[in-house]
Amino acid sequence: MSILTSASSSSVSRGYDYYKHNKVNNVKQLNDHEFEGYVDGSLKNPYYVKIDIEHPRKSYCDCPHANGNITCKHMTALYFELFPDEVDDYESWLNSDYDEDDEDDYYGYDSYYGDGDYYYDYIKSSNFEKPFFFDVVLEKYVDDLSIEELKQTLLTELKNNEKRTYDLYLGKNYKKYLQNNSDEFVFLDRLNKRVQDLTGYYNYDYNDFDKEILNVREKRKIEELYKNKSLQLQIDKILLNEKLSVYSDYRWIAHFYKKNKSSEEIYEFCKILENYLDSLKHYSIKNTVPKSNVLIAIHLLNDFTITECASLMLKNAKYLQYIDYIVENSNDIMNLYRSFMKLIEKNYFRNKMYIPDVLYRFVRVTDFENKDINTNHYLYSYLCLGHIEYLDILGYYLTEDKIISIIENKTKDIFLLVKLYKFYEKQEKLWDLLIDSNYRYLLLDNIEILKGKYNDKLYDHFIDEFYNIIKQGKSRDIYNKASKYISAISKLNNGNELVEKIKIDLRNSDYQKCSALFDEINKAIKN
User: Fold this and answer.
1) Which of 35, 102, 209, 421 could link 426 by a cystine bridge, Cβ 3.0 to 4.6 Å?
2) CA-CA distance, 362 to 358, in Å (whole number)?
3) Cα 141 to Cα 148: distance, rounded to the nearest angstrom
4) Is the pTM of the predicted complex or chain greater than 0.85?
């Protein structure tokens, strides 16, 4: 269970709307699975939200709706802010072509009754009152038909209910009819049954992508049979099946059709594959290989330019098997790399979680020897993932000032800049960044690096914040929030003395009888 699956559809929708309207602020990671932040709501003050992605029911929001462990819209808004990849999936779902009217097809309504219109025809025929001379006129009608007309009428009627026709007339002798006709028919019939087994509703398994569709002998046989134009349609019915494209073995089929189909036919089939890929994205498939295989099939059927390949790599960066295929089969790897870099220099935040993995593919294919590719791999690993060990590695390629300058020019992300300035102990830059921003609360986490030079200024800021908060009302929740700043003051130079002075001032003020306030202050200092 995740935050989104534990929420109602209304909470997810409203949370998404809050996220899109930038109502989420002051986001902070508490540990591996807990995050907190503030979400603007209908009241004057924002709601405090804490989510636990490992145990969603332990999440908290101080809005009235969240009482009773209900996942509210503020929790989902914070979740969307933290995990932009979930935003992509949700937006993809919103823009999908799914229609509730299609549910009858999903539950097999038509297949239960055979032909789609057969059930309704049956209802009509059951209410049919036969005319008095019906049998006489029918016999006369048949007598008047030519052999050709009789044959055509019989075929038409037999095809009206194919299941009934097969059960009554064809089933027992079906194989014999095929064998008497040709070995090619027997081969294609067997192949069709295997494909139906692979892609049938009950047997279809996306994760079984390594299953063999065709062996070497069958591939040769298909190439031979496809020269016979009368058999091409039958082969197409078997192999132009979008569900087969999740299998790695479909690459041969894509190559085969690339050689044997017109550009218009390939375009139409690619649209089918793209629609199928969109539908797969809504299924809970953890493994990315099946979707990568569909992308590879589309890639094989087209003649994409280097620029188009780079754009597709950025769009589908999470499907690393697909990325591997493009990189390993590129005829001009450096041109592809330069095209990809141009794209991410403008919008590296798109699919940013996966960009370092894409760049690593370029590092690997160039045997780790290209300095420019290596540098950009570690640079964007920091920009996209925020791990400071990449700053350490970048030091092997660039000077400290150069690293700071490049990152400052590429991002306004305050959390990345804070880590950057802390890593290089740039106190002035860190102070200027935080004091004049909406992220002053981050000063609480950076006392140690700043107090040497800004001890007095930190005290002035923390004490102002403390009094501003307690003026909002007399409640334990308010006292708890305000006490964080007293705890911060205790960490300053001469912090204990400063705190004791504040306590004395409070005991000589209107707050002298507020035991809850002093309890929260003492608790905050201990923690």
Assistant:
1) 421
2) 7
3) 14
4) no
